[in-house]
C-alpha cells in the first residue's frame, strides 16, 4: 500500500512538472524541448532551439550551417548536428566554435560574424551533398536539463550563396572617361567549369549631394569597362557573384573600391 501510494504521488508530481514546463517552453517554430523529470530544475532551463542558418558557398558539394551561442548561457550546451536524405543513412556534421578553428572558407561567408565577438557562433560543414535532393537537418542543443532541436528540410539548390568575388581592382582607362574593373571568382566556389558563376557590378557616385547608383545586368566575364564617367568625380565600385542559373541567393557585395576620375 505504502509503496503504491508513493509511486502514485511521484508519478503525478512528475506528470505535473513535465506539463508545466512544456506549456511554458513551446518555442516559436513549434519544436518542443524535452525535459527530464529530474530534481534541481527550478532555477535552470534546458536550451532553446538553436537559430540555424544554412548556406552553400560551394554548390553543390558543401554547405555550412551556423548558429549563435545563446547569450548568458548558464549551463554548457553541447550540439548534435545530423543530416540525412530520404531513406538514406544519418550523417553527422561536427559543430565547432568559429573562433577556435579556421573557417573552411573566407569569413565573409559567415552571416553576422565580424570578429567582434569570439565564441559567438557555431559552425558545421555538410559534405557530399547531392543535386536536387531533399535533406533533413536536425541540430539539437543538449544541456544537463534537457534538449531542443532545430529541424529543417532543404535542398542545396535552395541555399546556394557564393562568397563575394576577391581581388577587385579598379583602374582608370588611359585617355578615356572609363574605368576598368577586374576581379577573381570566390576561391571557395569549387567547380566553375560544371557550375559557372555570373557577376554583377554596382557603382555609386554623388552629384552635388544627390547619391546615384547603377547596377549592371549579370554577365559571366571577370572584367568590365564602366564607360561615360565624369571627369573629377569619385566612384565607389562593388562586385557580387551568383550561380549562373540564378539558384539561391547572390553573394554579399565585395568591399567598396573608390576611384576618382582625372580632372581632364
Ligand atoms: C559587429 O557586430 C556588432 C553586433 O552585431 C555590431 O554592433 C557592429 O556594428 C559590427 N561591427 C562592424 C565593424 O561591422
Ligand atoms: C534530433 O536529434 C536528436 C539528437 O540526436 C534526437 O534525440 C532527436 O530524436 C532528433 N529528432 C528528430 C525529429 O529526428
Ligand atoms: C588575389 O591576390 C593575391 C595577392 O596578389 C593572390 O595571391 C591571390 O592568388 C589572388 N586570388 C585569386 C583568387 O586570384
CATH superfamily membership of the largest domain: Immunoglobulins
- Order of SSEs: HEEEEEEEEEEEEEEE
Main-sheet strand order equals 1-2-6-5
Structure ligands: 2-acetamido-2-deoxy-beta-D-glucopyranose
Write a brief caption for the model.
The protein has 264 residues and is mainly β. Helices cover 9% and strands 38% of the residues. A hairpin with a 5-residue loop joins strand 3 (78-85) and strand 4 (91-93).
Structural account:
This protein is mostly beta strands and 264 residues long. The protein has two domains: 2-159, Immunoglobulins (Immunoglobulin-like, Sandwich); 166-260, Immunoglobulin-like. The protein is 9% helix and 38% strand. The protein contains one helix and 15 strands. It has one helix spanning 2-25, and strands at residues 53-58, 62-68, 78-85, 91-93, 96-97, 121-127, 135-143, 146-154, 166-172, 179-184, 197-207, 210-215, 223-226, 234-243, 257-260. The chain has a four-stranded antiparallel β-sheet, with no helix packed on it. A four-stranded antiparallel β-sheet has the order 4-3-7-8, with no helix packed on it. β1 (53-58) and β2 form a beta hairpin. The longest helix has 24 residues, at 2-25. The N and C termini lie far apart (103 Å). Mean pLDDT is 81; it is low at 1-30, 37-43, 100-108 and 111-118. It binds 2-acetamido-2-deoxy-beta-D-glucopyranose (3 copies).
Properties at a glance:
Immunoglobulin-like, 2 domains, 9% helix, four-stranded antiparallel sheet, 1 helix, 264 residues, disordered N terminus, single chain, mainly beta, 15 strands, binds 2-acetamido-2-deoxy-beta-D-glucopyranose
Amino acid at each position: 500500500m505504502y509503496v503504491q501510494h508513493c509511486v502514485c504521488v511521484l508519478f503525478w508530481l512528475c506528470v505535473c512538472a513535465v506539463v508545466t514546463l512544456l506549456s511554458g517552453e513551446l518555442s516559436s517554430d513549434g519544436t518542443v524541448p524535452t525535459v527530464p523529470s529530474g530534481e534541481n530544475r527550478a532555477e535552470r532551463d534546458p536550451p532553446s532551439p538553436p537559430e540555424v542558418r544554412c548556406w552553400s558557398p560551394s554548390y553543390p558539394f558543401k554547405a555550412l550551417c551556423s548558429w549563435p551561442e545563446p547569450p548568458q548561457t548558464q549551463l554548457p550546451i553541447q550540439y548534435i548536428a545530423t543530416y540525412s536524405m530520404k531513406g538514406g543513412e544519418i550523417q553527422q556534421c561536427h559543430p565547432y566554435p568559429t573562433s577556435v578553428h579556421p573557417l573552411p572558407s573566407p569569413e565573409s561567408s559567415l552571416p553576422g560574424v565580424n570578429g567582434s565577438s569570439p565564441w559567438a557562433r557555431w559552425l558545421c560543414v555538410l559534405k557530399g551533398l547531392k543535386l536536387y535532393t531533399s535533406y533533413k537537418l536536425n541540430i539539437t542543443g543538449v544541456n544537463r536539463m534537457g534538449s531542443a532541436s532545430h529541424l529543417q528540410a532543404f535542398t542545396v539548390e535552395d541555399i546556394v550563396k557564393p562568397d563575394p568575388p576577391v581581388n577587385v581592382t579598379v583602374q582608370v582607362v588611359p585617355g578615356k572617361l572609363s574605368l576598368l574593373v577586374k576581379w577573381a571568382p570566390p576561391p571557395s566556389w569549387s567547380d566553375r567549369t560544371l557550375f559557372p558563376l555570373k557577376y554583377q557590378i554596382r557603382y555609386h557616385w554623388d552629384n552635388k549631394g544627390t547619391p546615384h547608383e547603377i547596377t549592371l545586368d549579370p554577365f559571366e566575364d571577370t572584367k568590365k569597362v564602366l564607360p561615360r564617367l565624369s571627369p573629377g568625380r569619385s566612384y565607389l565600385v562593388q562586385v557580387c557573384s551568383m550561380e549562373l542559373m540564378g539558384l539561391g541567393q547572390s553573394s554579399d557585395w565585395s568591399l567598396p573600391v573608390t576611384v576618382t576620375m582625372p580632372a581632364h
